[in-house]
């Protein structure tokens, strides 16, 4: 993991004036750069303090912790919905006021327009009073139009920021929870579910915040419009409102169906992501056994079920939108048909006012209101899923680092420890274990497979719950896991793991962990990209990178889970002498090992058998606790730029003007024309979303693997032994990792070189990496 990138330029929004914020002038410098050239990451402004992920996450986490405490006291289930409301209701209520003002303006505009048209219907050139009143109406209509444009863009900018804040805070909480899950909790969730929560469920908060206020504004606006229409055209208005009222329960039903489909889709998406994760994790075995087609069929079937639910939801969404577009024509037709049948005469003012009022309420009642219901039900499903995840068990809080003057007092004390991975099982994972480890001591833990050696380290880390006994840890822990863990990136970033680079210390760690020679052989040294799951490293190299990461962290206590098993005897001796008993000699160390030749150097030997402590003899890091906070600030930078650029085309659209046009049509068409122009800019704004399609296309154009079957070269039969030479590199531009490899003997073969010598690339024989050169096989 590379350190978070340096902060961008100071955000001008922090010091912008009121006018600059209203008209978005603070974005003009960015527009100028974008006009001259393509925007780069360094051109972006730094995130505002109030929008940073660490601050947002901590605020929401504090409310969640209070809710958990209250729920525990009241013996009920904590409710995440209450937490969100308590944390954000004040700022969101202010946005509700602006929503109300905007909808009031939309209702007032048709009324003013009708008064202006009445003046021209009853035109009297000598009536100066009516002229001045009409000019006042025109000024009021202009003010309403300008105010509506400003309010609309400000509202959507801030309401999208509100959704972004909730989303980022939720991601922060989910991420922290994922790092703290206990082993029992890991059995109740999957990687696919966590990925789905972070990629899909949290996005519902961006949508629901936009439309939520229309749940109360919509009915209120409809009631006001009914009153105005009654004054304008009498009982005929009820015909159109009946159509609107009929659509509301239908769309509520659609919202419930959306919720149902969302629940089913989320479960299927979890399953699909989990399946894909398992396939990718085991892709080497799948390729070796030529199981691609069966597993491709398995993934396709899971995806087919997911797509079927998504399509059903899309059909409903299409019906929902169709009702919006059809409603306006049907409403106007029914209303004026009934109006004429009742013996009334149609006038221009009544038509324009009525149609404009219907347009205003139609947008709210048949689009925003049902969208609010749809997004509300979908967000309820997401909240329930996130809440269930946040309620999973956590490991106990890790110990903190000791001050420099207390480093020599680091220790581990265990007395009569009993631990269970699963309490439903009768057999404990550890039983009657006692030990004391002080500073400068090395404790070697040995025992057969399944004796509880890794469980002992897990209990010290706090991942294995303590059922009975005493466990005291004084000092910060670092853990090197039995299964090496690396992430896609450079070797250096895997070792530093977010720490500052200290060249002298880094060089000592590299030499102590026997990585110096390996780095010299790699094309880019420690800046070599190791690929997903360390695909370009051997098992021994990954184990040493894993150990180097733990050593570089400079912790107080080191827990080493069999780091010598993946390396050869020579490298293992180097690691033990130069690293475990050399660089770490002044630290408390617990070493799990099967290498009995190193026991003579241990201060204590702990023998475990069937989870019992057999004997304690005194002789003469994948996840580092506390490091999760390093990730929090880095998730802020990508959260606000989208909100800014969602608004910039709308700001441009609000500056458009119209030429001369007949008054009635001008007043009636101005909102719709503005809306159409807005839609055009929105479409241009959404064009960057095609980046997803571009990435998919780019992925399909990657170099394909060789054909499913290859033609075997002709054999040259001599005696009976098969021989062939091959040369292979992991990437085309890299140097050869296998050169002139010769295979012979008919039934058996072996590799016995040192770690990192090229044994793993021998899998090129399984065509996981196509050989560059291959000679003609010969049978002797």
UniProtKB/TrEMBL annotation:
Pfam families: ABC_membrane, ABC_tran. InterPro entries: AAA+_ATPase, ABC1_TM_dom, ABC1_TM_sf, ABC_transporter-like_ATP-bd, ABC_transporter-like_CS, ABC_transporter_C-like, ABCC4_TMD1, CFTR/ABCC7. Its EC number is 5.6.1.6. It is a multi-pass membrane protein. Signal peptide: none annotated. The chain crosses the membrane at residues 92-117, 137-157, 178-198, 210-231, 238-258, 321-342, 351-373. Residues 412-635 form the ABC transporter domain. This is Cystic fibrosis transmembrane conductance regulator.
């Amino acid at each position: 993991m590379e350190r978070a990138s340096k902060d961008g330029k100071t955000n001008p929004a922090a010091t912008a004036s009121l006018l600059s914020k209203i008209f978005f002038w603070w974005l003009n410098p960015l527009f100028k750069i974008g006009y001259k050239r393509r925007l780069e990451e360094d051109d972006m402004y730094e995130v505002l303090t109030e929008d940073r992920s660490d601050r947002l996450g901590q605020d929401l986490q504090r409310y969640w912790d209070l809710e958990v405490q209250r729920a525990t006291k009241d013996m009920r289930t904590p409710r995440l919905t209450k937490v969100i409301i308590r944390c954000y209701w004040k700022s969101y209520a202010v946005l509700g006021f602006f929503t109300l003002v905007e909808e009031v303006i939309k209702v007032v505009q048709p009324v003013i327009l009708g008064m202006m048209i009445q003046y021209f219907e009853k035109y009297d050139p000598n009536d100066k009073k009516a002229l001045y009143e009409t000019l006042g109406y025109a000024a009021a209509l202009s003010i309403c139009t300008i105010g509506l444009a400003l309010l609309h863009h400000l509202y959507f900018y801030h309401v999208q920021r509100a959704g972004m804040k909730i989303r980022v805070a939720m991601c922060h909480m989910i991420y922290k929870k994922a790092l703290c899950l206990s082993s029992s909790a890991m059995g109740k969730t999957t990687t696919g579910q966590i990925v789905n929560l972070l990629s899909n469920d949290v996005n519902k908060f961006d949508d629901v915040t936009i439309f939520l206020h229309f749940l109360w504004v919509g009915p209120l606006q409809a009631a006001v419009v009914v009153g105005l229409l009654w004054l304008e055209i009498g009982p005929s208005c009820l015909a159109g409102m009946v159509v609107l009222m009929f659509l509301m329960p239908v769309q509520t039903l659609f919202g419930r169906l959306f919720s149902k489909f969302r629940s089913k889709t989320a479960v299927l998406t979890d399953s699909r992501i989990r399946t894909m994760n398992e396939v990718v994790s085991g892709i080497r075995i799948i390729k070796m056994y030529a199981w691609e087609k069966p597993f491709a069929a398995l993934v396709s079937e899971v995806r087919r079920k997911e797509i079927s639910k998504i399509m059903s939801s899309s059909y409903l969404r299409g019906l929902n939108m169709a009702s919006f577009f059809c409603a306006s024509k049907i409403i106007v037709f029914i209303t004026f048909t009934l109006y004429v049948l009742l013996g009334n005469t149609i006038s221009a003012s009544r038509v324009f006012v009525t149609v404009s009022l219907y347009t205003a309420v139609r947008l709210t009642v048949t689009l925003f209101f049902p969208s609010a219901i749809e997004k509300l039900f979908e967000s309820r499903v997401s909240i329930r899923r996130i809440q269930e995840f946040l309620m999973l068990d956590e490991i106990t809080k890790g110990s903190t680092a000791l001050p420099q003057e207390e480093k020599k007092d680091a220790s581990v004390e265990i007395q009569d420890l009993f631990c269970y991975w699963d309490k439903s099982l009768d057999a404990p994972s550890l039983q009657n274990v006692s030990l004391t480890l002080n500073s400068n001591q090395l404790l070697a833990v040995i025992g057969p497979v399944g004796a509880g050696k890794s469980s002992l380290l897990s209990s010290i880390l706090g991942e294995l719950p303590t059922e009975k006994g005493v466990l005291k840890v004084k000092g910060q822990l670092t853990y090197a896991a039995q299964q090496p863990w690396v992430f896609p990136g450079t070797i250096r970033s895997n070792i530093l793991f977010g720490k500052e680079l200290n060249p002298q210390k880094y060089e000592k760690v590299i030499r102590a962990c026997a990585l110096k020679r390996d780095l010299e052989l790699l094309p880019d040294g420690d800046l070599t990209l190791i690929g997903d799951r360390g695909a370009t490293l051997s098992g021994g190299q990954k184990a040493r990178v894993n150990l180097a990461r733990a050593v570089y962290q400079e912790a107080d206590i080191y827990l080493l889970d069999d780091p010598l098993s993946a390396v050869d005897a020579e490298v293992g001796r180097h690691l033990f002498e130069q690293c475990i008993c050399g660089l770490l000699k002044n630290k408390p160390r617990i070493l799990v090992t099967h290498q009995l030749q190193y026991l003579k150097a241990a201060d204590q030997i702990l023998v475990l058998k069937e989870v019992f402590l057999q004997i304690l003899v005194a002789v003469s890091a994948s996840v580092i606790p506390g490091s999760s906070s390093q990730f929090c600030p880095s998730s802020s930078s990508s959260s606000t730029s989208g909100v800014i650029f969602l608004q910039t085309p709308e700001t441009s659209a609000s500056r458009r003007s119209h030429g001369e046009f007949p008054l009635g049509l001008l007043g009636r068409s101005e909102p719709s024309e503005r809306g159409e122009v807005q839609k055009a800019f929105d479409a241009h704004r959404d064009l960057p979303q095609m980046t997803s399609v571009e990435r998919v296309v780019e992925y399909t154009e990657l170099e394909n693997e060789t054909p499913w079957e290859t033609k075997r070269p002709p054999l040259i039969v001599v005696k009976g032994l098969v021989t062939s030479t091959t040369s292979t590199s992991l990437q085309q531009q890299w140097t050869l990792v296998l050169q002139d490899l010769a295979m012979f003997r008919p039934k058996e073969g072996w590799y016995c070189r040192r770690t990192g010598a090229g044994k793993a690339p021998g899998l090129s024989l399984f065509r996981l990496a196509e050989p560059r050169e291959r000679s003609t096989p010969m049978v002797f």
